[in-house]
Amino acid sequence: MIAARFFSIKNWEKFVNIKQELIELKEQRLDFQRRVDDLAEKLKLEAEKREYLEYEITKLGRLNTIGQLAAGLGHEIRNPMTTIRGFLQMLQSKSDLHTYKSYFELMIEELDRANLIITDYLSLVKDKPVEFKRLCLNKLLDDIFPLILADAYTQGKKCVFEPGKIVELEMVSNEITQLVINLARNGFEAMPPEGCLTINTYMDAQSIILSVKDEGKGIDKEHISKLGTPFFTTKENGTGLGLPMCYRIADRHNALIDVKTGPDGTTFLVRFPKPIE
Ligand SMILES: Nc1ncnc2c1ncn2[C@@H]1O[C@H](COP(=O)(O)OP(=O)(O)OP(=O)(O)O)[C@@H](O)[C@H]1O
Ligand SMILES: [Mg+2]
Predict the structure, then answer these.
(1) Cβ–ligand 1 contact at 184 (below 6 Å)
(2) What H or E segment, with its residue span, contains residue 11?
(3) Are residues 40 and 100 in the same domain?
(4) What are the b/e assignments for 23-43, b being 16+ CB within 10 Å?
(5) At 247, is the secondary structure helix, strand, or coil?
(6) Alpha-carbon separation of residue 27 from 20, 68, 135 (angstroms)
(7) What pTM value is reported for the model?
(8) Would you say the CB of residue 192 lies under 6 angstroms from ligand 1?
(9) In the chain, how many domains are there?
(10) Is the CB of 214 under 6 A from ligand 1?
């Protein structure tokens, strides 16, 4: 009888030990599962990062090839255009052709527009030496804000500028002016009348950020990957050179452009690296 009790207590101890081991194993399994989940999440992020970088590299490659071609073409086309413009101007001044004055004006205007497109394109592809100066982005935005407001008024839209606390940046002021004007213009063009464009600046640990936010309908999913490709446009009178120029300028400033878009609007974020003190 005593021996039987003794055995059952021993068995009980064995049972408790096994149970304890089982609990520990279960905890270990949960811990292992957590680590597997963490790793899976990290892998997913890495894959997304890789996809983004591959997309950026493809875009840069495309820009480069088309750019080299266009630089040569641009020069060649400009010369005959200058000759045509000269003859048109001469004919315009002839009194016996006075009835066609408006036609001549239109032809010259169109030639000038074509010339401007070539100028814009050449400025995209040329790596001309430029002078970087340490300047305050808020001061630059303050200076060009009347220009942006004028753009807004002509389209019946609104615009606000909210400067944040930021440090100075190394930049080429006329390039950054061009970048802001292009982003703002796209924002205005995307919005219905009364829409408001918000330009603001702020800073985080690594970057100084310029944000241009509109209240438009957003960018279609299938168009997002084409943003920045020369001549990609969805506008009847668009050229599709505004954004490529912005990407080029951002690149020259070691800045990155992020796009956040949805049915309530689009935000372009230009992230400049914080200068080393
Ligand atoms: N803020 C925005 N909201 C919605 N779509 C936009 C926005 N910005 C750019 N896009 C889309 O990207 C396309 C390309 O823009 P990009 O500025 O390069 O050329 P564009 O505005 O069409 O012509 P332009 O050469 O006159 O600037 C636009 O046609 C438009 O479809
Ligand atoms: Mg544009």
Answers:
(1) no
(2) helix 2-92
(3) yes
(4) eeeeeeeeeeeeeeeeeeeee
(5) helix
(6) 11, 61, 57
(7) 0.70
(8) no
(9) 2
(10) yes
Rounded Cα–Cα distance for residues 211 and 202 (Å)? 8
Give the environment of ion ligand 2: residues with CB less than 5 A: 186, 242
CATH of the domain at 246: 3.30.565.10
In 3D, which of 213, 212, 205 has the Cα closest to residue 137? 212
Contact 267, 260 (CB under 8 A): yes
Give the closest ligand to the alpha carbon of residue 121: 1
Domain boundary among 94, 109, 128: 128
Tell me the per-residue pLDDT of 46-56, one tens digit each, with 9 for 90 and over. 999 999 888 88
φ, ψ for residue 63 (rounded to 5)? -60, -45
- Tell me what pLDDT residue 76 has: 83
| Per-residue pLDDT, 116 | 83
pLDDT digits (tens, 9 = 90+) for 66-96: 777 777 778 788 889 999 999 999 999 999 9
Choosing from 217, 235, 245, 248 the residue with most ligand 1 atoms within 8 A of its CB, the one to mutate for a pocket test is 235
